Please model this.
Amino acid sequence: MVILRSPVAAPGNHAITGENKHHFVVLEETCLIDSNKQERKAFMKRRDFMKVAVGASAMALCPFTGKAGASQISVKARQLTPGSQVKVFLAGVSRGAPEQGIKLAVRNAAEVATDFSWLSKGDAVFIKPVNNSGNPYPATTSPAAIATMIGILKEKGARRVIVGDMSGVQYLRFSPTSLSGSSRALMASSGLAKAVQASGAEMHCFEESGWNAFYEDFPAAGSNWKRGLMMPNILKEVQHIVLMPRCSRHILAGSSLGLKAAVGYWRHDTRLEYHGDAATLQEKTAEGNTVGTLIAKQRLVISAADKLLTTNGPDKGYVFEPDNGLIIASVSVVAHDMVSLAWLLENRRIIPASERDGFIDTSKVVPKVANHMVTSWLGGWRPALASETMTKNSINTIWDDRVLTRSYDLFGGVPAILLESANSALPDALKNRLGRMTAF
Model:
């Protein structure tokens, strides 16, 4: 097995240390580049804040005065309803496989997960990656996977393929009157921009079109959202959406998979409600995927998961490359996430306990403090101090995850997962193990 670690590297450099002899690398620490002034911006990043949070354990004794959530019912205590059978396709990827091998596995998974009959010649397709930071895959979506999907869509007749996202608030501040930071610069740093441009697709960064380039879309009835969600206008110009997340831990939500990727669409006032009403953050994550646009247009969810961010997240953590990696594909975002979370948990079981049981991953205080900090970035200290207190969602099995639990209510029950091999590189033992972990 190859284990990749990610301490902070010098800005703009892939700092290679002597540990590389043992398959260790250092991930790139991204600085923002203002496209107008070409100056480096020094925003406080989540990792920097976590260092402060280590010394804030006293917060547990003197917590924020914001409201505590009323919905902190144990997931295991809730009654789950069985749903219909859904196929999830897995393509195996051997550790150290060349880029062409990864691209072939992505193609294998995509072409068995859907027949692309929904795509007519001349259609426009939006690919939604995860580019929360400027750090390379698996902190962001795999550029090789993005390039492959662009190629497939063009082969199938797509006239336009657009790839876009809006990065995290720790790197980008967006309001009706101001903008600091750049998703485009972060996409360049992560490697996604190069893959998009080389493949002949368009790149669209939501903030570049301005505050008014968003429309209000509404989640399913009975959601915890108080208002509609502000979604980017570019989605009105396409007939189809392909979601391409990564497989990662997340210090606030527990994991960052397909459902969590919806946050990248949202304007910052929507993100402020999301973080400010923190008691139901996990539930609102699932509910955000029920807006009309996503229900009507999302066709496929596919993740490259030959590398995983197994601790901390969403931007940094312990990068692990298992002997047998996966490409995970399904037409159902819920079924995809059940398998992707099982895969994350399986790899967390393998990594060294010293990494898995670190302070940031195990602390109940850090998520509370971190969420108040994110809320302050979005709306200032007053909303941060008034925001609800977040309760950590400890996830030891997929049945512990509040995001998935809420999604079962919204999408017709717990899918009966049918795992199918997309290529011959998938070990039967791995397929069977994931099958047991996702069986309801």
Observations:
- The first strand starts at residue 2 and ends at 4.
- Confidence is low (pLDDT under 50) at residues 1-74.
- Residues 103 and 148 are 6 Å apart (CA to CA).
